[in-house]
Amino acid sequence: MSSTYGEMIRLTIFGQSHSPAIGMTLEGIPAGSSIDMEKLERFLARRAPGRNAWSTPRAEADRPEFVAGLLGNVTCGVPLTAIIRNTDTRSGDYEELKKKPRPGHADLTAQYKYHGFQDHAGGGHFSGRMTAPLCIAGGICRQLLEKEGVKIMARIAVIGDVEDESAFLTSVEENEFPVVSPEKGILMQQRIEQAREEGDSIGGIIECVVTGLPVGLGDPMFHGMENRIAQAVFAIPAVKGLEFGAGFAAARMRGSEHNDPFRIRDGKIVTETNHAGGILGGITDGMPICFRAAVKPTPSIAKSQQSVDLEAMKETSLEIRGRHDPCIVPRAVPCMEAAAALAVYDAFLAYKAQQ
Amino acid sequence: MSSTYGEMIRLTIFGQSHSPAIGMTLEGIPAGSSIDMEKLERFLARRAPGRNAWSTPRAEADRPEFVAGLLGNVTCGVPLTAIIRNTDTRSGDYEELKKKPRPGHADLTAQYKYHGFQDHAGGGHFSGRMTAPLCIAGGICRQLLEKEGVKIMARIAVIGDVEDESAFLTSVEENEFPVVSPEKGILMQQRIEQAREEGDSIGGIIECVVTGLPVGLGDPMFHGMENRIAQAVFAIPAVKGLEFGAGFAAARMRGSEHNDPFRIRDGKIVTETNHAGGILGGITDGMPICFRAAVKPTPSIAKSQQSVDLEAMKETSLEIRGRHDPCIVPRAVPCMEAAAALAVYDAFLAYKAQQ
Amino acid sequence: MSSTYGEMIRLTIFGQSHSPAIGMTLEGIPAGSSIDMEKLERFLARRAPGRNAWSTPRAEADRPEFVAGLLGNVTCGVPLTAIIRNTDTRSGDYEELKKKPRPGHADLTAQYKYHGFQDHAGGGHFSGRMTAPLCIAGGICRQLLEKEGVKIMARIAVIGDVEDESAFLTSVEENEFPVVSPEKGILMQQRIEQAREEGDSIGGIIECVVTGLPVGLGDPMFHGMENRIAQAVFAIPAVKGLEFGAGFAAARMRGSEHNDPFRIRDGKIVTETNHAGGILGGITDGMPICFRAAVKPTPSIAKSQQSVDLEAMKETSLEIRGRHDPCIVPRAVPCMEAAAALAVYDAFLAYKAQQ
Amino acid sequence: MSSTYGEMIRLTIFGQSHSPAIGMTLEGIPAGSSIDMEKLERFLARRAPGRNAWSTPRAEADRPEFVAGLLGNVTCGVPLTAIIRNTDTRSGDYEELKKKPRPGHADLTAQYKYHGFQDHAGGGHFSGRMTAPLCIAGGICRQLLEKEGVKIMARIAVIGDVEDESAFLTSVEENEFPVVSPEKGILMQQRIEQAREEGDSIGGIIECVVTGLPVGLGDPMFHGMENRIAQAVFAIPAVKGLEFGAGFAAARMRGSEHNDPFRIRDGKIVTETNHAGGILGGITDGMPICFRAAVKPTPSIAKSQQSVDLEAMKETSLEIRGRHDPCIVPRAVPCMEAAAALAVYDAFLAYKAQQ
User: Fold this and answer.
1) Which of A18, A24, A72, B353 is least enclosed by beta carbons within 10 angstroms?
2) Residue D311 pLDDT class (50, 70, 90 cuts)
3) Cβ of A272: how many Cβ atoms within 10 Å?
4) Hey, of A29, A354, A355, which one would you mutate to test binding to chain D, going by the most D CBs within 10 A of its CB?
5) Contact assignment for D221 to C267 by CB distance below 8 Å
6) Chains with 3 or more CB pairs under 8 A to chain D
């Protein structure tokens, strides 16, 4: 099933950009888990649109209403469902797009897949807006993991040609622009601003680390931590690449350089380096999980583009109106944490079941 | 479940490096599908060990015995099971490794996960040998796809600092060393040989393309083609990174550059470029699926390494004996095709079900 | 996952008797399926409470709001979600039951399972009210099947010692009391009325038939039609038994009597009798699927009963106030159709995928 | 997937009556679980053919070879696979049946489902022989449960018109004919013998109890203990009915009679009666799970029957040769225990994960 994730937990995401509501059902959260709603709302606010210069002016409260699964703020063991009403919808903006698919978007492929019955308004189920329910679910998993000493933190690593400084093991979520180096952050924002002024958009890379994990999470083969995280992370619309630890750089390395030597520190086995990104054979080794995801430039741009007229079956140009982020990367940072949290919490529950 | 893959098909892989047998069960293949056994054996031969200078001298026939699901060579609709007997096993080689985990291997994490009950001989279920049943299943899917006009072809794109030439849309499977440029192939083999002479190993990148696909394969969110392929590809032991289309390069691109303009050619909608790697919103757009996977250098090297003695809980050095590939990349090429074939065939059956 | 059903479709049911809302998400319905909302509401009305003498006076509109997955009344291919607001809730009625579990209910077992965190009000997720979302999903599947010529019809076969007449292959859904024989219906209603007057309740048997099915639906072993229907039907709270075709009567039969002889009628293979209930080896043979389900008497009765005080851990008596059906069987009739429709439609989509 | 069962465990059964081998893969058994092979073989011997007067003379050793997942007799955490070679196969016996389907068998429905590509020899994947791998998996789960104090015991409750005595809470597995009352057992055997002499067969009912279960196993709705057991039990070829506790008798009961009053005994909550069969709301209440399954008479009988000639599409008579049980019930007794063990052990692992 397409919009469903997990083994010990099961997340189902529903809704379209302009349907009455969007939302999610999350099963498998242990009864008696307390949800800090204020913390969850702060987390959701990090991806919410309309907050600053580099995001779409569409403003939605995006406050989830929990309609099932809670007594007060405590889970009662059965499916947890939250919905967000879609209030600020302007379907009219998208009418033209029904017959002129936007390059880089799912307009055309949704048309193929659903034989013309797709909800095209605002991208329908393919809209970046569907990351809101992802963040509800992931935000819950993230705070439950935090109680177990597991922290999940992401930052912007790259925007265009600007790279953040490399050390990254503490949270930058308090920063409005989530980078380690304020100077690099300013440069990145300049790149975004420049893209916007030119009616264009720009891509980037997000880095995510997970610390405090027990050893032994994950499974061999198709359910290793890499597989699990990949299945979650590629659900974020613009992600086109993913690497763990040394990742693609490993291609140029020797084994003697890439292998992380084992050491003993304070009676525990650690590795001197972390080229493996905390995962060996799909299973956590106790070092931080570390991954990087490539985010493509927002496909919706103001500049005129080449499209096709599906009715006339001829080439045509397209100018996209409506409200769009010149760079989706900053708002994708909490989405990355949410995706990681889902994958890690699911594996964590499986791990606890085996103790 | 860890060793299980698929929705419309379901693959289960079983076995350990030194168990009586390894094998696979594949459910969901339509009744009446004819399997070309000779073709399958040629496919398996491409990953088999002991064939040439750059692979381990462990020689196994690796001829699968189909014990269920066939009448002659035709599927009868029920689970298809094949086993390969493990004959050339030398468990003694691995005795020391029970207490001294190999850096870069799953020895330590398996010990954590299975509380000391893991089968450590030869890496157990984490052995690269488990890609043989993966290739049986993937090889079958690949030939069934071929009958539908879908081709899956991989090549070595990078070994160390040597990059193959870029154009890649035709099969190089007949080449003993699967690259486009023979010159670059020779350079790559030199890098591998050099690593071996130094008791070391080397990594690389594999590129895979899928051509002839219908439009409309894949699902939104967690079951997009990227998610599906990622879940399969990260099952190959040494893979640490994966990118589709422009992938990580997209981070530096503008939307106007990255968006693939739609064109009409011969009455069909195509894109001028293929930065999307044939996938928009998780769904195929009719252009070739194109992905690249980073393969880390073989962790088993002859050079002395830093490990720990798990009994004494002190640091120690480790010298790995036994037979190992100085570079796993060439043998991983068919594995990549197999993983892609599983993912694509599974999505293909779902697609056919929706027509 | 507990509240999830299906393979080609996936139903997730959420909510508690007194949570803000109850509802369901149904994935896998083909894009372009038109839902007749009026028909669906008529179907839901058949299980709605408060309609007549033999059901609880709790009155709820029970009109589902579809918040996702539709464009107008047509599915757009993505998850379909409907919610029903809980408006007429009186949690106070149930306060005492938190410490005094009701015999025959899930109060005690929910307490065990959820370690005291369960939502006990109105039975929480275990309430018969959760059959409303089951009927939304099943009602949709049922009308989609009807377009394919497949009809699903249930009736009351037994209440207490009164048995309906045996022939049953046409719908009785228009009857307020769904039986074939009006005389037997009156007798059954008398039994129910009598039970109510005595502060008691009464059980019964529901029979369900599915006609117009293609041959070849279902799978061997764990996913035969019996298995599929059983998994759905036992989700209806009070069901304690299920039999197909001759069912338990087969125990007393000889093979020569039980085996349904094959015949040819109008060029098609039929069976002379239908002791198999339309299913051989888990797969439909073209005869009507026929099953009967035993429904226990409503556990909530006015009579004083033996319970325990969980705080004091001593025996105590319990008198249940609140609103309860003296016989759940009439309202369970559409639930049985809904459960059957889910199972059959799921198998039907799998069948279509194999053509 | 048809031949796959379970959530925390996953069983896959493969093979056909006359394929090179049959077998099973069982995932999810915790690493370090010790399997008593002698005990398992004794368990398998209870369903093996050819042992006595009332079963088919086909003699197979049916000794499973474990090819993966074990170190010695201890699970190493990865998939556990066992195969049984098919040695005593006589495909010739079945040639005629390819065009003349046997009434009461899956011959015709398999033909429909697999479009003529099915393996018809010996019933293929639909053969009662496929309960051998079911018993391997179930036998393992059963002995692992026994270590946790959980016992699973079945007996013959009814053959034809003969009913065993009703009290049943201790094992009768040592009895060659598994009933409580030796007198009733003799009568039952007479009924079977009589059926055989007449070239006919006879059905029966099997009762199964599970004792020593913790409270709180199972889930609401689609994954209650009834649903789980039903999905497993209906995988046994001849089962056509299933009831829990009072089952169908509940239809005639009043709530005041059916509700099991809570009592306190030795500081624990018990119920005075067990009409619920140990399950309330799908969840165990600590009383024994108790269920009864109706087994139809063996469809293969010597008597001439009405079939159809599929090639000529005309009615014809059929005389079945080959070796068949006049009553499958005795050999189905351990199968019932195996099916129950799978369902209970799966729920047990989920339960342990929640503690």
Assistant:
1) A72
2) very high
3) 14
4) A354
5) no
6) A, B, C
Residue with tokens 């998208």: A94
- Give me the amino acid identity at A133: P
CB contact (8 A) between residue D108 and residue C280: yes
CA distance D266 to B104: 56
Q: How far is C78 from chain A (nearest CA, A)?
A: 7
Mean residue pLDDT of chain C comes to 92
Tell me what the mean pLDDT of segment A295-314 comes to: 94
Q: Give the H or E element holding residue D196.
A: helix D182-197
The string over B292-318, giving b where at least 16 C-beta atoms fall within 10 Å of a residue's C-beta and e elsewhere, is bbbbbbbbbbbeebbbbebeeeeeeeb
Q: Which residues of B touch C78 (CB under 8 A)?
A: 220
CA angle in degrees (0–180, nearest 5) for B298-A271-A207: 85
Amino acid residing at B181? S
**Selection from B228, B199, B229 nearest residue B291 by Cα:** B229
SS (H, E, C) A178-204: CCCCHHHHHHHHHHHHHHHHCCCCECE
Residue C50 has pLDDT above 80, yes or no: no
pLDDT at D52 > cutoff 90: no
Q: Give me A84's structure tokens.
A: 């967000």
Q: Which residues of C touch B (CB under 8 A)?
A: 8, 30-31, 78, 220, 349-350, 352-354
- Chain B residues contacting C via beta carbons under 8 Å: 8, 30-31, 78, 220, 349-350, 352-354
Distance from CA of B78 to the nearest CA of A (A): 23
What's the whole-number mean pLDDT along residues D299-320? Answer: 93
- Angle of CA points D164, D292, D221, to nearest 5°: 165
Residue C59 φ then ψ, to 5°: -110, 120
Partners of residue A349 in chain D, C-beta under 8 Å: 353
Q: Which residue has the higher pLDDT, B167 or B105?
A: B105
The Cα of C69 is separated from the nearest Cα of chain D by a number of Å equal to 23
Between chains, do A27 and C3 touch, taking CB under 8 Å as contact?
Answer: yes
The token duo for C329 is 């069987």
Residue type, D284: T
Domains and CATH numbers, chain C: 4-353 (3.60.150.10)
CB D285 within 8 A of CB D271: yes
Q: Looking at beta carbons, which residues of chain D come within 8 Å of A352?
A: 353
- Euclidean distance between CA atoms D226 and C158, whole angstroms: 22
Contacting D with CB below 8 Å, chain A residues are: 8, 30-31, 78, 220, 349-350, 352-354
Nearest CA-CA partner of A7 in D13, D28, C125: D28
Give dist(CA B10, CA B29) in Å, integer. Answer: 9
CB contact under 8 A, B349 and C349: no
**pLDDT tens, residue by residue, C223-250:** 999 999 999 999 999 999 999 999 999 9
B-D C-beta contacts closer than 8 Å: 155
- Note the Cα C141 to chain centre separation in Å: 14
Residue for token digits 């594949």? B26
Q: Which residues of C113-148 are buried (b: 16+ CB within 10 A; e: fewer)?
A: bbeebbbbbbbbbbbbbbbbbbbbbbbbbbbbbeee
